[in-house]
Every structure is written in C-alpha cells, then in structure tokens.
Amino acid sequence: MPATTTTEFDVLVVGSGLAGLCAALLLAPQRRVALLTKQTLIDSASIWAQGGIAAVMDPGDSLEAHVQDTLAAGAGLCDLEATRFVVEHAPEAIAWLQSQGVQFSEEAGRLHLTREGGHSARRIVHATDATGAAVQTALLERLRETAGITVFERHMLVDLITTPMEMPTEAAEDPAPATGGWPGARRCLGLQALDETSGKLISLKASHTVMATGGAGQVYRHTTNPPTATGDGMAAAWRAGCRVMNMEFIQFHPTCLYHPGARNFLISEALRGEGGRLLLPDGSRFMPAYDPRAELAPRDIVARAIDAEMKRGGLACVYLDITHRGADFIRAHFPTIHARCLQLGIDITCEPIPVVPAAHYACGGVLTDLSGRTDLAGLYAIGETACPGLQGANRLASNSLLECVVLARSAA
Ligand SMILES: Cc1cc2nc3c(=O)[nH]c(=O)nc-3n(C[C@H](O)[C@H](O)[C@H](O)COP(=O)(O)OP(=O)(O)OC[C@H]3O[C@@H](n4cnc5c(N)ncnc54)[C@H](O)[C@@H]3O)c2cc1C
C-alpha cells in the first residue's frame, strides 16, 4: 500500500498511556509534537490501573528501603543504577502529576499512603481504587489545553523509518544511542502508521520518536491487559535493530475473573487479604500445601500454584471463595467486584468466583538508558514497552506507573 501523506514534526510520541501523555505534555508547546494512538486517547492499560504509584513520601520511610524492596521483588536482576534513579525521582514525579491537576487521596491535608505487597512501608500514592483513571483524566484535560500537540487517534504504528547514520558529525550533534555503536549505526527518521479510518498509510517524520506503546499481555490467552497491549512498539523497535531485554519475565496476576463476557477483569489481591480462599472444583483448598502463607503468599507463588493445579486436573479455572465473610461485609468492602460479577450472573456473596492466572505486566522490553535512548539514534522507548532495568525479573507493585512518569521526564 503506498504512503499518501507525509507530515513533519519535532517529536512523534506513539501511545496515549501514562508514558506517552507525560512525554507529550513535557515537550509541547516548545516542540511540535504528534501523538499517535491506535484506538482512542482513553484506550490504555494506564487508565485501568487501580492500586497506585510508589514513592517515598513519609518521613519514617527511606529511599534506600524502596530500593531494597524493588531489588528483592526483582529477584536480584534489577539494575541498581536504574533502580536508584527511578526511586530517587519518585517524589518529584508525584509533585509534577499534582502540578498537572491530578488529585490523589488525602487524609488530614496530606497525601494518604497505602501499603502493598512487597513494600516495607506505606508508600503508595493513590486516588481511591482508581488511580489510573484519575491520573489519565487529569492529563487528558491538560492535553486538550496544550498548544503544539497534534493528536492522531485510530492511527496504528506499523513500522519505523530508518537510515544509515553518517559519522562523525551526527554523533556529535546527538549523544550516542544508549548502547549502539559504529559501524552500521542507524538513525530513526520517523514512522509509518495506518490510518484505521481511511485504511491509508501515512508517513510521519521527526528527528525524535518516542515509543510508548505499553505491554504485550495479549500474547497470552488470559491477560489483565487491554486489547491494545500487543507488543507493537517492542516488535517495531526490534525490527529496526534495537535490542530487547528480559522479555521472558512476564508477571502474572493470580486471580483474573474467568468468564467469557469479561476477559480482563481483575479480582483484587485484597479479596485474599480479607480471607478469600482458593478452591478446587470439589471445594478443597490447595494453597496451604504450596506455601505456609497459603493464599497470602506473593503473587508469583500463588499464580504458579494455580497453574500447577489447573494442569494437574485439566481444569479451565479454580475458584476464589469469600462467602464466609457474609454478604454485608462483602458488599461494603468489594462494591466494584461484587457489582461487576453480579452483572455476569455471579453473586460473590453466596458462590465462589471462577479465576485464572493472567499475564499482567511485561518486565522486559526495548533496552534503554536512563533517558529512554535505544540502540537506534533518535528513537526513545519509555513505559512498559521499555526496559531501562528497573523491574528485573518481577515488578514490585506500583513501580510501573512510577517508571512511566520518571522516564518520560528524563527522556523529554
Ligand atoms: C488492570 C491493571 C491494573 C494495574 N494497576 C497498576 C497499579 O496500580 N500501579 C502500577 O504502577 N501499575 C499498574 N499496572 C501496570 C501499569 O498500568 C502499566 O504498566 C502502565 O500503565 C503502562 O503504561 P504505558 O504508558 O507504558 O502503556 P499503556 O498505558 O498501555 O499505553 C500504551 C498506549 O500505546 C497505544 N498503542 C499500542 N500499540 C500501538 C500502535 N501500534 N500504534 C499506536 N498506538 C499504539 C495504546 O493504544 C495505548 O494508548 C496495572 C495494569 C493493569 C492491566
């Protein structure tokens, strides 16, 4: 299919999740920015995020503790420099989001900090249980008010446009790519995108392209990710010669609702925190045989145990039962889960919930430095699509929205 339009910008940002919106807002109006997104602006994993954003904000907490918690979750495979960088920039990332109009939950005039698995202190900044929606809604409002951003909805990145780099002049103008080198170094000149409304290909040119296309959960049968999470940016960067790293480290959420009408609905960890028990179809409990912490063992242990039981019994799912806590307690503590399941014909006050482990987060991605630079000059990668080294083999809860903001700021 021939390209029909060529348009030139200073920066192309691909993706309207948290990473992409931050980058676009930080670059405009000084730069002419094109923001592409393959569905609409609101389609992203970011808007679905519930828990929050990790940052050391309490005087009793410490940056070192956040670093150590991240390293422990990452099973020793986090890059120490990247971990320190992200953790140290977390408080200012939160302040920047607030300056953009994001309203986080407060208590007595201060940010309310909650605690999540793997964190040794209360350090999760949140907006009730819908943090991603609060953040994205505020940033999208800013986007509408900001001059210099041209939005291309329903435009899907198809491929990057690259050219061999001349040396040494260009190398002096633009700092060397993250890890690439001479000879054979290439530069990114822009991209080709499919206009999904007209069916035509367009070419967009810019000296800088920022890949913020999110994760790849849709590669798996069960995933908590939105339909847009198909790894497009990772694949395009790889095809253009960038290295990818840690792609084998996919974090699974142990309890995603198993129902044909709701493929990506998360059944929060809090349900197990409040006494929910995992059961086989015959009603027997199996987690105590896997770990002394039973249902409260870390995510990866619970997910592996469920997977083993499903394989052993040829099961389509297992069940999560909270009925013993009583209908009033369940309705008060889990109004969203109760209402959503009821819509699907499952009354969680009197019957167990069918659940499966589901691909939740891609720890790896396009290899970058701490400014998001990839192996390809002019190409940056940020957010879940990138791998600057923070997440190691396993992401610490609420570190991913944080990475989106911190790396978007340093790349911008
Ligand atoms: C249900 C759920 C709950 C979560 N809760 C939390 C939490 O509480 N705290 C936390 O830190 N993390 C959480 N995460 C993880 C976190 O939400 C993601 O890692 C983060 O939002 C990724 O942001 P992103 O900007 O990189 O990608 P996304 O938000 O996924 O945005 C990617 C964007 O790229 C676009 N795109 C993709 N391919 C193309 C293409 N070819 N062309 C054009 N556009 C394209 C998409 O349409 C989308 O707009 C959660 C994830 C899920 C799924």
Please tell me about this protein's structure.
This protein is α/β, with parallel strands linked by helices. The chain folds into two domains: 1-249 and 363-412, FAD/NAD(P)-binding domain; 251-359, Alpha-Beta Complex (Flavocytochrome C3, Chain A, domain 1). It has helices at residues 18-27, 63-73, 80-88, 90-99, 131-145, 169-173, 232-239, 269-273, 299-313, 327-333, 335-343, 399-411; strands at 3-8, 11-14, 33-36, 53-54, 106-107, 110-111, 113-114, 124-125, 149-152, 155-164, 186-195, 200-205, 208-211, 244-245, 250-257, 277-279, 318-321, 353-362, 365-367, 379-381, 386-387. The strands form six sheets. The chain has a five-stranded parallel beta sheet with strand order 9-3-2-13-20, sandwiched between helices. Flavin-adenine dinucleotide (FAD) binds at residues 14-20, 36-39, 43-46, 48-53, 131-132, 156-157, 212-214, 224-225, 228-229, 232, 266, 361, 383-385, 398-401, 404.
